């Protein structure tokens, strides 16, 4: 089986992958037969649930903001808190599957995820919404590695490629239809029903898993979860995100912001020092001495910037009545060409990489990401969907190429015995990047968008709103009645909000494009060329 095929399953939601020589027999797993279909169905149903919740929230953003009376800062927390929780817990979550058994971990993950979804669905305040998303993230972190592990334990060795192909197909389908499902609920009964339905679905999966996964091996019962590492990673990342998110409210030089940055730095430095001394660390950071793995982390990070960032900021732009004015369903349909491009290209890039290696295809894909983002940086207040579509297709091609190839290249360059440890680092990089692109991107979106909004209002001799009102307007909210005034004032606010949204979106795309292009020489420097006369993949590093 080719390396790219082994990592195809992790294209959208990267999890540790089995080494090619391992199979059901080697693991002592269940033999294929009676329960194979049920195990596969449980894995697919759980994976589909996680995928839809990861992308479906994007088309519900404006409805959430209007219902709870929150702005872009709170919306970014609703997305970023979930990613942050997954980043902090996904590696020990995979370890729990080994310790407790995959059946227990799947059931527990589903129950925690269902509880978080119910909290989100019933939320009436920003704090409750974010708390529910954190609980969901913890459940997802426990559940995600198990969706692949149960397939590895159940399918015979000679059919592992088929199992991983099914896993990847379900992940791709969930990614593509998640915004559409979220949009249908938002335009239909309510955005809340996306989470009520998710809670019910998770409980159903847990119930079926109790019976369907009975034949899987029990856990080892060993102790081995690095609690200290989890706590330090959580404190460091949370403090960093709080500092970034609150800069618009607190100010970049305020004592609270500085304290958060200091806490983040201390916690992350302590994490590095603690992990270096542990026999079984949360993250095997010594592997970052291997240039191919560093290159894989860079390529994965660039891919995630657009995989998550474009969906989030496009919906803020498209759902506002002052710009494209799309309904949630229309916005999700507008994203289908992008999603289809990502899916189609990602499925076709494997054979290419098997023939020519990863180095130049990933560099080309990264360049396409940068080019597509810079095209989108030209979107203005009067631009229609026709101005967005070409850039989104170029971006989709780049995202498709870099979806799994960087991680495949990095893992393929390492000793096979350490591929699981390396994939743990890539896991964290992917989810940390997802959280950071939303939080830091929102900082740029709000700063540039609010500045443009005030500038256009000043040109019309209309007093600018405060920070809170600007934040609400840029989240798609309607102008407050006390600020509406006459027709001329309302029209000025309409033009200003449209200009602010377009400028904020364009600014985020510009800087993401610059980062993508800057990553290309780093990728080429760190990723070795294929050895002459050898395999197409990079040379292996022991």
Q: Could you describe the 3D structure shown?
A:
By secondary structure, the chain is mainly α. 75% of the residues lie in helices and 0% in strands. It has 20 helices and no strands. It has helices at 3-8, 24-27, 36-56, 61-68, 72-100, 102-122, 126-154, 160-187, 192-212, 227-250, 255-277, 291-319, 328-356, 359-376, 385-401, 405-412, 419-459, 467-474, 481-484, 487-526. The chain is globular. Mean pLDDT is 83; it is low at 1-34.
The percentage of residues in β strands lies in under 5%
What gap, in angstroms, lies between the N and C termini? Answer: 21 Å
- The computed structural class is mainly alpha
- Put simply, the count of helices is 20
Helix-residue proportion: over 70%
Which series of helices and strands comes N to C?
Answer: HHHHHHHHHHHHHHHHHHHH
Largest sheet: none
Mean of all residue-level pLDDT scores: 83
Shape: globular
List segments where confidence is low: pLDDT < 50 over at least 5 consecutive residues. Answer: 1-34
The whole-angstrom Rg is 23 Å
């Amino acid at each position: 089986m080719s390396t790219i095929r082994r990592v195809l399953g992790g294209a959208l939601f990267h999890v540790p992958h089995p080494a090619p020589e391992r199979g059901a027999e080697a693991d002592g797993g269940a033999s294929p037969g009676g329960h194979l279909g049920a195990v596969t169905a449980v894995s697919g149903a759980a994976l589909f649930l996680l995928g839809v919740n990861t992308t479906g929230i994007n088309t519900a953003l404006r409805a959430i903001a209007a219902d709870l009376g929150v702005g872009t800062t709170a919306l970014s927390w609703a997305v970023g808190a979930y990613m942050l929780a997954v980043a902090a817990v996904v590696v020990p979550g995979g370890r729990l599957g080994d310790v407790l058994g995959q059946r227990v971990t799947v059931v527990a993950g589903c129950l925690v995820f269902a509880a978080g979804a119910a909290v989100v669905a019933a939320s009436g305040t920003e704090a409750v919404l974010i708390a529910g998303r954190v609980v969901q993230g913890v459940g997802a972190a426990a559940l995600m590695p198990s969706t692949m592990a149960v397939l590895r334990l159940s399918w015979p060795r000679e059919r592992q490629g088929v199992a991983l192909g099914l896993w990847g197909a379900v992940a791709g389908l969930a990614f593509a239809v998640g915004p559409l499902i979220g949009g249908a609920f938002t335009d239909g009964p309510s955005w809340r029903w996306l989470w009520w339905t998710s809670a019910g679905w998770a409980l159903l999966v847990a119930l079926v898993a109790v019976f369907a996964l009975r034949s899987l091996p029990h856990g080892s019962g060993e102790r081995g979860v690095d609690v200290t590492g989890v706590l330090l990673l959580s404190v460091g990342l949370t403090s960093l995100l709080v500092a970034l998110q609150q800069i618009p409210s607190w100010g970049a030089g305020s004592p609270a912001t500085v304290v958060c940055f200091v806490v983040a730095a201390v916690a992350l430095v302590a994490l590095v020092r603690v992990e270096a001394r542990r026999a079984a660390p949360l993250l095997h950071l010594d592997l970052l001495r291997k240039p191919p793995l560093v290159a894989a982390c860079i390529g994965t990070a660039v891919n995630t910037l657009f995989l998550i960032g474009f969906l989030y900021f496009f919906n803020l732009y498209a759902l506002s009545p002052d710009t494209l004015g799309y309904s949630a369903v229309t916005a999700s349909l507008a994203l289908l060409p992008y999603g289809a491009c990502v899916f189609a290209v990602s499925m076709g890039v494997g054979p290419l990489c098997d023939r020519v290696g990863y180095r130049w295809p990933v560099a080309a894909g990264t360049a396409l990401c940068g080019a597509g983002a810079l095209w989108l940086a030209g979107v203005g207040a009067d631009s229609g969907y026709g101005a967005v579509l070409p850039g989104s297709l170029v971006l989709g091609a780049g995202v498709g190429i870099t979806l799994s190839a960087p991680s495949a290249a990095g893992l393929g360059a390492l000793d096979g015995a350490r591929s699981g440890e390396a994939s743990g680092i890539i896991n964290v990089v992917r989810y940390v990047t997802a959280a950071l692109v939303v939080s830091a991107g929102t900082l740029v979106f709000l700063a540039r968008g609010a500045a443009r909004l005030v500038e256009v209002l000043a040109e019309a001799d209309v007093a600018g709103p405060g920070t809170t009102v600007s934040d609400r307007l840029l989240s798609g909210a309607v102008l407050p009645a006390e600020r509406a005034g006459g027709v001329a004032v309302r029209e000025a606010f309409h033009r200003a909000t449209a200009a602010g949204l377009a400028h904020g979106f364009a600014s985020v795309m510009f800087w993401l494009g610059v980062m993508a292009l800057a990553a290309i020489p780093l990728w080429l420097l760190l990723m070795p060329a294929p050895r002459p006369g050898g395999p197409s993949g990079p040379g292996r590093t022991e």
